[in-house]
Amino acid sequence: MENLTFPPDFLWGVSTSAFQIEGATDADGRGQSIWDTFTADQGQIVADDHYHRYPEDVALMADLGVGAYRMSFAWPRIQPNGGGAPNPRGLDFYDRLLDAVCAAGISPAGTVYHWDLPQALEDTGGWLARDTAARFADYAAILGERFADRVRMWIPINEPMVTTVYGYAIGEYAPGRTLLLGAVPTAHHQHLAHGLATQALRAAGAESIGTANHHSPVWAAGDGEGDRAAATWLDALLNRLFADPVLLGRYPDEMHEHLPEGFDGDLPVIAQPLDFYGVNYYEPQGAAAPGEGNPLPFELRPIEGYPRTTNDSPIVPDGLRELLVGFRERYGEALPPVYITENGCSFDGVHDPERIEFLKGHLAAVRAAMSAGVDVRGYFVWSLLDNFEWSKGYAPRFGLVQVDYETQRRTPKDSFAWYRKLVRK
């Protein structure tokens, strides 16, 4: 760990999300989400039963020694139909959870939305509908008024890129739409929701508000002009579409024809000043010139020549350094302090040397970016627990803690012990 020396006030954390760990999908008046609908053929998603077992999970975090816990609130548990008065039993659950986290000396970092849109809102258009942004602001105000006294950091929307691309463009995630570039308006409506929610949270007394955006360096498959143009376009779709509006108050030129009419009128609301910028990093993306018949201006190409996780992701730690340094160069003084709000990998077993090497490599990349002038203030491992990994079910194992899904027994992995030693240095 000699090369992993960080400032004394560097914030170490772990991350989870509500749908992936809570279970109790029929408890306390919780409503139906788009993910309940999308996974209906799998039966009830019990996940890690964190709803009932949160005291054990908080004890694990206390043993780990992290300073912060990034969790998410389940919108359907707070507003079962996506609007109206809050569900008191849902609020009570998060009161209990946040009180336990704070009592353990850990600072909560609250994500307002991690993809579990109430099904009732999807039925009226979901993120294709501008009104969903207004409903989201109402929901954020409820959370702010109830929990701003305990939540240290707020993230309105987790990874809007994933909702747009995987949920509405290609249909791999809920709600399973296949609109291709017709999905771009969902990015704008999520941005508007972010801006309105940021205003609502600040009005309720929230002190630190930022983002958690999924970002990937985009590498051209070759040196030809077509491949380079494809990489530029994919970078606009995956990265600049989601960073430029909140940091610079504008959209990349490539996106203008795909955005809703009058989008520029919303940009002052979208570009609210941020206290931090969250980066979720897993892997680079490759792009090549599109072949005949491809309706998109790029083709995806796999990143070859690197070891891979059990989730088939290439392990490229230096991609994180490249990304962070590139952001500092692109956004300059517009880039607030950065937190790595997610970074992790899927490997099997309690003895997981591959995960330890993954974390070492990526933390060394963070340290290199800091040495190059990037103001990185903290790092959150994804994830505390093995969990329900969206469309891939329970197979990928991202946790520092193994979960036996039949017995719900928690077993800290070797990587848990390694991370505990690092954060307690």
UniProtKB/TrEMBL annotation:
Active site (catalytic residues): E159, E342
Keyword flag RNA-binding: no
Keyword presence, Hydrolase: yes
One GO MF term attached to the UniProt entry: beta-glucosidase activity
Binding sites annotated in the UniProt record for substrate: Q20, H114, N158, Y282, W382, E389, W390
Stored InterPro entries: GH, GH_1_N_CS, Glyco_hydro_1, Glyco_hydro_1_beta-glucosidase
Pfam families, per database record: Glyco_hydro_1
Name of the protein in its database record: Beta-glucosidase
Organism annotation: Amycolatopsis rhizosphaerae
Lineage of producing organism: Bacteria, Bacillati, Actinomycetota, Actinomycetes, Pseudonocardiales
